[in-house]
Amino acid sequence: MDGPLVIQRPMRWDNPFSTEMTDEDVDRIMTLEPFCNMDESSFPPSMSLRDIVRNDMRIRNYRHGDIVVRRGDYGNSAFMVLSGSVRVVINPDLPDALLGRQTEKKRGVFGALKQLWANPDMPEVRDVARLKGGGAETGQRVRDGETHTFLQDVPSIMKDYHTEPLREGTIFGEIAALGRTPRTLSLFADGDTELLEIRWQGIRDIRRRDEAFRNHIDKLYRERSLIHHLRALPLFQHLDDETIQSVADATVFETYGEFEWHTSFKKLAELTGAERLRHEPVIAGEGEYVDGLFLIRTGFARVSRHVNHGDPTISFLGRGEVYGLEELVHNWKNDDQIPYQNSLRGLGNVDVLRVPTKIVEDIVLPNLPPNLLPAPIVLDKPEADSIQSVTQEGSGLDTGLLEFLVENRIINGRATMLINTDRCVRCDDCVRACAATHNNNPRFARHGRRYGNVMIANACMHCTDPVCMIGCPTGAIHRSSLQGQVVINDSACIGCATCANSCPYDNIRMVAVRDENGDFVLDEANAPIMKSTKCDLCVDQMGGPSCERACPHDALRRVNMSDLGPIAEWLNQS
Amino acid sequence: MTLTRKHIGRFGIAFLAAVAIYFLHGGMQAALWEPAFVTGWILLGGMLVLTLLNTRKKLPFLPLAKVRNWVKLHVYLGWFVVGTFLIHLDFNVPNGWIETTMAVLFVIVALSGVLGAFLSKSLPPRLTRRGEEVIFERIPIFMTQLREAADDLAVYSVEQTTSTSIADFYAERLRDWFTRPRDYFEHIMELGGRRFALKQEFDSMERYLNDTEKEVLGELRALAEKKSDLDYHYALQKTLKGWLFIHIPATYGLLALAVVHVILVHAFAGMSL
Asked: Which regions span the lipid bilayer (chain B) (predicted)?
């Protein structure tokens, strides 16, 4: 063979986690557990362990009291203590004020009415006293270009809260990173501390190739999360503790796809249908043996059926949804065994749990109340599938619209603003109502991607997988304690634009704020103070989202994309 | 718009309520009472409830039912009020200048309301089908951008082709058209004559151009089509907003006169009640 060996390196390494990882750093990490115990030969040349350490990890330094992660944060990385220690707050939880969050509460009647006369005339006016004050119990310091929030009074925290130290070599945050679930505990640095941060792709690739690491992660997941995950699903709610434990023990973890859905979908949307399909890994193929019930743990998947030369979408599944139940029930009840009737494909990286067929047939289905059984599968259809009938079968939505929603990953929305332009009289009452309920600042634009008469307006969708929440240095963007809306604590926002840059839908806007006189508020360098702003779904208003309530022609709805039935009904009504 | 059972049902309720008022009116007349006082107060009450829609819109922060439900109430209560108005007049033409003015204003309010409802149903689908979605207030900005692009293209065509054919065509036939919104009624009535004429002019110009000029003309044609689409959106969106400038001022004029009317009627009522 002539010439050097050419290998395909992961594209994510074009943007390594840190550009400051030196050979010495990599050598040092390779001498530490668990990395020193890993078999480097089990990693392919295109993705060596050393390269994973170099490209998917970074060393971060914290000072005494610096908050490392907050309860409720969405993370995409895990940490390992290199030196020093961190303290995990066990009980009680740190209050919202310490975590950089606001405590949302609904306005009363007077508070609501006050907006009639108290809204400022100028846009983006803030109470300067609040801007200056910040949180009295926390502070912020910038080091190496990064902002760290720190606890002002660590001794009293240690006294008032039950905390436990995590020493050198301890790994934490891996389950939240892999499962893209909120962090369950808050941690802060106890003295000067050096942490190794590992982004989730690195954890995933090590997990794939190192058995001990895989077993460790899986064990943690089984112990901490799996039972809760199963319990949350109606299918398993009727099982007693012992039975559900046996289901959990038999459940298999599987991962499909290479790229995060939110980084790849815009490029994929430019491809033809057939090309796109090649980038969607098959989780369960149409016509294949039914080997289990699939539960989506993270990511999104498309359910499709092959018709002639195409694979039209029937529906899509997100976190917590299941696939294969209809076939399993059919095979359990009948002698004639059928394969999967449709294909389940990953839209980017998808983690699934597979409950084996035998477990479902022996344990789950016999205990399932009849009302939870799905409708029987119709096998002998009088007519062959057409692309239109396949799409209609799943959602009732127009074929093109369904594909549009999937291709643009609008399926991530839990409160997506849909505008039916066939009904919208362009009166902008929705925008005015939004402004009236947000100090005269509309928090969305009546503008956005459109398919036919359906417009997806540029308003925060309060996503199932809120990637905007990853990486906020102060925890200002968070899920509300009221109904899980994604909100920004204006006081804690430092205007770094991490969330705005992360939002794949461009629904977060950076604004320069003004004082009560309408003058821009400036920092020491005379640069305007910036804040992230977006729709908060009127979290503090009495009646809910004012945009939807203000629409005179029922042309605007905030919809949960995981439930297409009401959307189809609304769009199809005359 | 498709009439559904719901629409017919709601209209039926409004109609039956008006019929009930008619019989009440007849009954009171038979009993030698003056029914105009009762129908008048019902009419005024109905009109006040109708104007509450605007108040509701000004209070988006209060949980006062969704505006779409207020609009439904507005439409069907509006029909009921029209019926009550006719009964109140005893199906006669009023005399006296206040009463006549009120009646004229009432007719203007009612007809503009019906027109508004028709426009609100018929124009949005037309806007969906043509051009890009554009916010009304931004149309002048986009028009200016298009005109500047067309100006630049005309200059460029002279520099690039050493011919003034396209620049002349632009200056004589298009420059003025590009300066502001045009063809309002053409677009509202969906006549399409201007668009067709433009196409013909572009087509006939092509005969006299070389390949480079044809390319430039193609770009100019694309700009003209965008301008036409903007004109279309401008015309339809302006109409969607415009009918309210008749409906709302006439409503407030009517209410003001109604108050005067009530005062006068009660002042001169004597013992007839």
From this structure: 7-25, 31-53, 73-91, 97-120, 243-269
The answer to whether the CB of A420 falls within 8 A of the CB of A454 is yes
Describe the crossing of helices B211-242 and B139-161 by its angle, rounded to 10 degrees: 170
The pLDDT tens digits of the residues spanning B162-190 come to 889 999 999 999 999 999 999 999 999 98
Q: Which residues of A touch B136 (CB under 8 A)?
A: 426
In chain A, what are the domain boundaries? Answer: 11-100+146-207, 253-395, 413-572
Is the distance from CB of A421 to CB of A553 less than 8 angstroms?
A: no
Beta strands in A462-535 (DSSP E): 477-479, 486-488, 509-512, 530-533
Please tell me the CATH code under which domain A11-100+146-207 is placed: 2.60.120.10
Same topology, domains A11-100+146-207 and A253-395? Answer is yes
Range list of β-strands (E), A508-572: 509-512, 530-533, 556-559
Q: What is the predicted pLDDT for the residue at B125? A: 96
- The full DSSP string for B191-216 is --HHHHHHHHHHHHHHTT--HHHHHH
Which chain B positions have a beta carbon within 8 Å of A428's beta carbon? 135
Q: What are phi and psi of A546, to 5 degrees?
A: -70, -25
Query: Least CB-CB distance to A421: which of B119, B120, B124?
Result: B124
Which element (helix H / strand E) includes A190? strand A186-199
CB atoms within 10 A of CB B197: 12
Task: Give the tens place of pLDDT for each residue, B24-48.
Answer: 999 988 888 888 899 999 999 999 9
Query: Among B3, B10, B53, B61, which would you mutate to test the A interface (most chain A Cβ atoms within 10 Å of its Cβ)?
Result: B61
Residues 106-135 of B with CB under 8 A from A: 119-120, 123-125, 127-128, 133, 135
Q: Name chain A contacts of B69, Cβ cutoff 8 Å.
A: none
Judge contact between A84 and A189, C-beta under 8 A: yes
CATH code for the part of the protein at A253-395: 2.60.120.10
Contacts of A455 in chain B (CB under 8 A): 133
Task: Give residues 44 to 73 of B whose Cβ lies within 8 Å of A.
Answer: 57-64, 66-68, 70-71
Chain A nearest-CA distance from B228, in A, is: 19
| Secondary structure of residue B235 in the 3-state scheme | helix
**Residue extents of the structural domains in chain B:** 5-129+243-267, 137-239
Amino acid in position B80: F
Note whether A426 contacts B127, CB cutoff 8 Å.
Answer: yes
Cβ separation of A549 and B67 shorter than 8 Å?
Answer: yes
Residue A529 contacts B where some CB pair is shorter than 8 Å: no
- Render pLDDT for A105-150 as a digit per residue (tens, 0 to 9): 788 888 888 888 989 999 999 988 777 655 556 777 777 777 788 8
Q: What pLDDT is recorded for position A46?
A: 83
Q: Compute the nearest-CA separation of A436 from chain B (Å).
A: 7
Q: How far apart are CA A495 and CA A530, in angstroms?
A: 5
E strand or H helix that includes residue B117: helix B97-129
B60 vs A423, A453, A550: nearest CB? A550
Q: Which helix (H) or strand (E) holds B263?
A: helix B244-267
Q: Nearest CB to A437: which of B4, B60, B237?
A: B60
Length of chain A: 574
Residue among B61, B124, B127 whose CB faces A112 most closely: B61
